[in-house]
Amino acid sequence: MTDTQKEELMRRALDLARKGWGMTHPDNPMVGALIVEKNEVVAEGWYEKDGGAHAEINALKNLGRRPKKGAILICTLEPCSTEGRTGACVDAILQSGIRHVIIGARDPNPVHAGRGLDKLKENGVSVETRILTDECEDLNLLYNHWQAKKRPFFAAKTATTIDGYVATRSGKSKWITGEKARLDVMRWRRFFPAIAVGAGTVMADNPKLTSRLSEKNEWCPIRFVFDGLLTTVTEKEHFSLYSDKFKSRTIVVTSNHAGSGYVRKLESDGIRVWVLPAATSQVSILAFQERCVQEKITGVYFEGGPRLIAGIMREKGFDYLFSYRAPIILADEKGKNAYSGLKTDQLDQAICLQGIKHQALGDDQLIRGFIAYPAEMNFDEYLLGIR
C-alpha cells in the first residue's frame, strides 16, 4: 500500500469520525476506523456517542466475520488499552487476528498514551503512525486540551470586516459575513458543548445561540450569558435565551455583586444562575473555568461581543480563536472593533496565532488557531472588560 493510498484511507476514516461531531463529550474523542483487505475497505465504524462502543469495535462488528489474513486496521486515534465502559480496543484487535494497524494520532489521555501501541507491538502487530497526524489531532481540539490541561477549551469567535470591525458606529452587524460563513458557525456551535455571550450581545441582538444546520434539526448547547450585574433580568421576557423552549439550557453567569433578588427571579423562572466570586462586578474567568471543570464542561465557544472578548483576552483566558473575515472595509474609527485595550509598542508584544488553519467560505475567510500571548500584556486602564 502506497503512502498516497494510506492518506486517502485515513481521510475516509476522518470523514467517518466526523459523524460523531459534538456527540462524544465529555469523556471521549471522535474516532473513525476502517478494515481493509487487499486494498479494499470491507468494514467501517466510528464512535457514535459518549458511552457507546468505540470505532474499532464497531468496525469489527460491522465486518460480521473474522478478518482475512493480511487485513489492515486504519484508525484516526490510538486504540485504547483499558477496559473502561466498553472493553479495551487493543484486546479486540488482537483477538480478531489483525496484524497490521495504521494510526493517525496518539491518544493524549495519559491512561492510554502509547500503551495501546506498545501492547500491539508486544503481541506481534506491526504499527504505523503519523499518517495525517495534524488532521487527526485537529479533529479533537476539546478532548486533547481536556486531557493535556485538565481544564476546558475556551475559544473566541469573531466575524469582522477586513479592517477588524464587528459593527458600524451605529451598531449594525447583520450581516458582515455571508451565508457559508454563518453556516460554518452553526457547525462549530454543534461541536462545542457550550456557547457564551455577554449581556450586551443579548440586549442588542437577542440571539438564540442554537445550532441550526437544517430547519428540522435545531440543537441547543448549554448557553452562558455573562452578566456581572444581571442587567438583562429586567427585560428578560423579551430575550429568547430566557423564554424559548430551550431556556433550561441557559445559565446566567454573574458575580457576587449582583442583587440576590434578581438571582431568585431568574431561578423561579427555570433559569440557572452561577454566582461566582469576583473582586468587582466583572465575572472572573478563572472562577468560571473552575466551575466548568466541576461540571465537566470540556469547551466553551465565546461569541462575544467585543467587551466580553476583550475582557477575557486581558486575563489570557482564551486558548483558541476562530476569526471570520469578510471582504468589507468600513474605514471608520468610530466603528465597533473586535479587539481593544492592548498597548502594543512592539510587534513582539502582539497576540499571535499558532497551528493556523485557513479556509475559504464563499467570499469570506476563516483563520483559526491556538492563541499565544506575549509575556507582557499592557492594557489601557479604560478597558471595559466583562459586563
What is the count of DSSP helices, taking H or I runs of 4+ residues? 12
Label the overall shape. globular
Runs in which pLDDT lies below 50 for 5 or more consecutive residues are 381-387
Give the mean pLDDT.
91
The total count of strands amounts to: 18
Our Rg estimate from Cα atoms comes to: 23 Å
The N- to C-terminal Cα distance equals 57 Å
Topology as a string of helices (H) and strands (E)? HEEHEHEHEHHEEHEHEEEHEHEHEHEEEE
What percent of residues are in strands?
25-35%
Task: Supply the key terms.
387 residues; alpha/beta; 9-stranded mixed β-sheet; 5-stranded mixed β-sheet; 18 strands; globular; disordered C terminus
Any chance you could write out the topology, listing elements then pairs?
Elements: H1 3-17, E1 32-37, E2 40-46, H2 55-63, E3 72-77, H3 89-96, E4 100-105, H4 115-122, E5 126-128, H5 133-138, H6 141-149, E6 153-160, E7 165-167, H7 179-191, E8 194-198, H8 199-205, E9 211-214, E10 217-219, E11 222-226, H9 240-243, E12 250-255, H10 260-268, E13 272-276, H11 285-295, E14 299-302, H12 306-314, E15 320-325, E16 336-337, E17 352-361, E18 364-372
Parallel strand pairs: 3-4, 4-5, 6-14, 6-15, 8-11, 8-14, 11-12, 12-13
Antiparallel strand pairs: 1-2, 1-3, 7-16, 9-10, 15-18, 17-18
Helix pairs in contact: 3-4
